[in-house]
Each structure stands twice: as structure tokens, then as C-alpha cells.
Amino acid sequence: MSAKQGSGTPAGKTNKSGKGEREIPHNSQKAKKYYPAEDEVKPKKVRKSIRPSKPRETLQPGTILILLAGRFRGKRVVLLKHLPQGILLVTGPFKVNGVPLRRVNARYVIATSAKVDLKGIDSKTVEKVGGEGYFAREKKEENKGEEAFFKQGEKPEKKPIASARANDQKAVDKALLSNIKSEPHLLEYLRSSFSLRKGDRPHEMKW
User: Fold this and answer.
1) Where residue 29 falls among pLDDT bands split at 50, 70, 90?
2) Is the separation of the CB atoms in 169 and 94 below 8 Å?
3) What's the rounded Cα separation, in Å, for the pair 186 and 176?
4) Bridge-based pairing state of the strands 21-24 and 13-16
């Protein structure tokens, strides 16, 4: 009996014997004889939705922050702008403590009670620096051959600072420095680094 079912799939055969009936599935419904040697990797379904991060109330533009991680840990910086996904745009300024315009994670900063007036800062430059792709690394062409082989033991060359970034740094720090100098002891406060000594209790400190 090779009649087709209503769903479009071919029906199997039914063999009758003295003991009863036995259904034989169609060739298309039989189990596969070949199985892959390795399991097929299936992409995992991400059910978590990306929620917009809520900045802390203490993290307001102009607030002086203390960096807790990274190359400039212990330095005091000025918060300029909130970026997506809990990232902050900060600056030293560079002439004060050597911290350039950079992005930091909001989890690794301590907000202090001190603030700097951001009046007069070039907002267009801040928007430009906070945009996507500004801090993206440039792809280098890897030279494979004799030159690359002999340069393995040499010290890596210092990356030259782009003139556009240097101009953006000066444009942001120009108005910021004048506002900092107008406040007494604020310049020395930004120059000093934060550190803990034996016996210090950070949970009892007033930032």
C-alpha cells in the first residue's frame, strides 16, 4: 500500500501476517545511516536585551573623578560627558596631570564633591570626541618577510600623536584651564594623585 497521506508525506506499507499487522515506514521516513562525526554548533539565542545604563547621580558633567583602574589609576580627572553603555568621557586636563581625552568605565571611578565649571568649552569638539570611531585603532599592514623577522627583538616604535587629536585636546583644555585657575587650590588638587596608606579607612572618607 503506497498511498500518500493528506499532509503530502508518503505513507508507509502495512504487512499482514498470522500474528498481526506491522507498519513499515517509507524510505524518506527512515532513520539516517550517516551521522556527522562532530556535533553541529548551533548559535545560542541571546534572550537578554541591552538595557540603557543609568548613570549615578554623583556622576554629573564637571565632577572631578578619581580613576581606580587602567594606566592612569589614582589620577584625578574632569568628567565631560556620558557615553552609551556606562562609558564616561574625561580629561585631565593634559597640561595639569598628563591625562588626555579618554573613555573610562563608570564602575572604576570615584566621584568627589569637587566640581569644575564647564562654561566656555567647545561643545562641538566634545561631541566629535564622544562620537563613534574617534578612538578606533587604525589597522596596520603586517609586513611578513625578512624585515619583520629581524625586527622581532627590537623595541616597538612610539606611535606619533595625530595632529587632529592634539588640536581637539587643546580646544577642550583651553577653557577648562581658565576655569580651574579661577578656583583656589583646584589646580594643585588635580595634579596630586590619590593613594591609600596603612590605616586609612576609605569607607569613612568623605569624597
Assistant:
1) confident
2) yes
3) 12
4) antiparallel
Cα gap 134→182, rounded to integer Å: 31
CA distance 97 to 100: 9
Q: What does residue 14 show for φ and ψ, rounded to 5 degrees?
A: -120, 115
154: three-class secondary structure by DSSP: coil
- Distance from C-alpha of 55 to C-alpha of 172, rounded to nearest angstrom: 23
Rounded CA gap, 107 and 201, in Å?
A: 20
Pick the closest to residue 169 from 142, 138, 129 (CA basis).
Answer: 129
The span from the CA of 132 to the CA of 135, in Å, is 8
pLDDT digits (tens, 9 = 90+) for 71-113: 999 999 999 999 988 899 999 899 999 999 999 999 999 999 9
32-86 pLDDT, tens per residue?
A: 777 777 777 888 887 777 777 788 889 999 999 999 999 999 999 999 999 988 8
Residue 171 one-letter amino acid: A
Beta bridge partners of 94: none
Element (H, E) at 96: helix 94-97
Which pLDDT value is given to residue 202? 79
The CB-side HSE value for 77 (13 A sphere, CA atoms) comes to 29
> Distance (Å, rounded) from C-alpha 47 to C-alpha 193?
43
